[in-house]
Amino acid sequence: MSDPPAEPIKGHCPNCGPSRLSDVVGHHHTEETDHDVWGRTDYRILQCRGCEAVYFQTDSVCSEDWDYGDFDPQNGAPEIVANHSIVYWPAPSKRPSPDWVHELDFIDRELCDTVSEIYVALNNNLRVLSAIGIRTAFDQASCLLGVDPKETFAKKLCALLELGKIGSDEKETLNILTNRGNAAAHRGWKPEPEQVTTMMNLIEAFLYRTFILEAQARKLKHDIPKRQKEPVVDPLNVDPLLLLLPKPQHRADFP
Q1: What is the value of pTM for the model shown?
Q2: Euclidean distance between CA atoms 140 and 161, whole angstroms
Q3: Is the dihedral of CA 104, 106, 111, 112 positive or negative?
Q4: More exposed terminus of the chain, fewer Cβ within 10 Å: N or C?
C-alpha cells in the first residue's frame, strides 16, 4: 500500500452526506491495459474531517468512457474528460430513516428490525426486497394492533377499520400498498424508484400515526395539569370589613 496523498479530497460521508472534505488514510491503485484500451482504479480509505467517520471509496476510469469538456482556447478543440465511476461503502443513503424509527424498538423488536432492513434494501437499490419488506412491516403492525395474523390482507384492512385504527380513505391506500407488496413477492413485479418512494411514504405515515403519534398524544394528555377548583369561601371566616366593600361590577352592569 502506497503512502496516502497529503491533500484531502471530497467524498460522500455516510454520516455527513456528499461533498465532505475527507483525509485519505489509505490508498491503493491498479491499472489494466488491453491493446489500446486502458483502465485505472483507485481504492481509498477516507476519514471525514467533520465527524471522523471512516469509509471506503472506489474510483474507476476507462479510456472508453469519456466525455467532451470545455474548448481549448488555443486550438479550439474540445477537452476530452474521462468519466469517473465512484462507489462508496457503506453505500450512500438514498432514503434516510426517520428519527422515530428507533422508538419502534420499545414497541416491538421484530417490527423495528424489519423497518430498519427496509432502509438497508433501499440504500442498495433492492426495490423488490424493499416492496416485500414494506408488506411484511404492515403485516407485523396489524398483528400488534390485534388483527388475526391468519387472515388475508383484505380482511386485515377491514378489521383495522372496524377497530377504528384506520379510516376508510387510509384503508384504500393501504390496500394499494399491500397489493403492490404481494405483486413483488409472488408475481415478479419490480417497482420503479418513484413507486417505492410512494410505498415508503404510505407505510411511514401508517406506522408513525399508529404507534408514535398516538403514544405522544397520550403522553401529552397525561402531562396537561388538571384544572384547579376554586376555593370555597366560608362566610363565617370572612373579615366583616370585606363584606362592606362594594361588589365588583361586570361589563353588563355599565350603561
Answers
A1: 0.64
A2: 16
A3: positive
A4: C
